[in-house]
Amino acid sequence: RSQLTLFPEAEVEAMGVQAFSEIKSETPLSRDPDAISIVRCVSFAIVDQLPAEYRAGGAWEVLVFDDTAVNAFALPGRKIGVYEGLFRAARNQDQVAAVVGHEVAHVIAHHANERVSTAAAAQTGVGLAQAMAGGTGTVSGQMMGLLGVGATYGVILPFNRKQESEADIIGMEYMAAAGFDPTQTIPLWENMGRTNSGAPPEFLSTHPSGETRIANLSKHMPVATAKFEEARARGLKPDCGF
């Protein structure tokens, strides 16, 4: 589909790299070797299936954070972050892959550029230069929200329904192409809704869920299942120890 993307992708990637650097400086890293191993295994298997332009220019940086939030994100500039709390909802490697695939899909679909461009075009009162640099060499909370990681900073700017639907479908296809079972996307979203004693986790505060999402995933399941079967036939059978 046509998108409003006013900024060079390299500029948006620079924003993502800076945002990730700030998150690392403010959030402790996980010391759980199992969680780290699982997330890295799943993430790199999915990254291996991305278009060449997203595999060139250096490896993706994948980190697990010591935080109970049921959350994860991916940023332009080849960055993936997963919070330990995600394992409260993801019960197997395929469900972890559903989350990572969804987040990486936002990057592949240029949703960050679209959101930053839309905000700039609408003249929301946020000067782009200040939003990018925060005036002090940091990324502002507003820009964090536009990039998709604002929950930590109290600036929640949800992806719109079209972007969410795209991320669901693109992410499911990439996880399937990597050899992960796409049918696990549906129980993953159901698990999400049951975490936190009935209160929605941060992940769902920025990612609308419900019957419409599950119906959309179910509608596209035959395509993803075919990709999964093709991947298995090619010997792609990830074993991430979960």
Short key terms for the protein model shown above:
single chain; 242 residues; mainly alpha; 3-stranded mixed sheet; 10 helices; 3 strands; globular
Provide the fold topology.
Blueprint: H1 9-26, H2 33-47, E1 61-65, E2 72-75, E3 79-83, H3 93-108, H4 111-121, H5 128-133, H6 141-147, H7 161-177, H8 185-194, H9 202-205, H10 211-233
Parallel strand pairs: 1-3
Antiparallel strand pairs: 2-3
Helix pairs in contact: 2-3, 3-7, 7-10
- The percent range for helix content is 40-55%
Question: Proportion of β residues?
Answer: 5-15%
Identify low-pLDDT runs.
Answer: none
Major sheet characteristics: 3 strands, mixed
Task: Give the CA-CA distance, first to last residue.
Answer: 37 Å
Order of helices and strands: HHEEEHHHHHHHH
Mean pLDDT: 85
Number of E-state strands: 3
Round the Cα radius of gyration to an integer and report it.
17 Å
Mass-distribution shape: globular
Strand order of the largest sheet: 1-3-2
Count of alpha/pi helices: 10
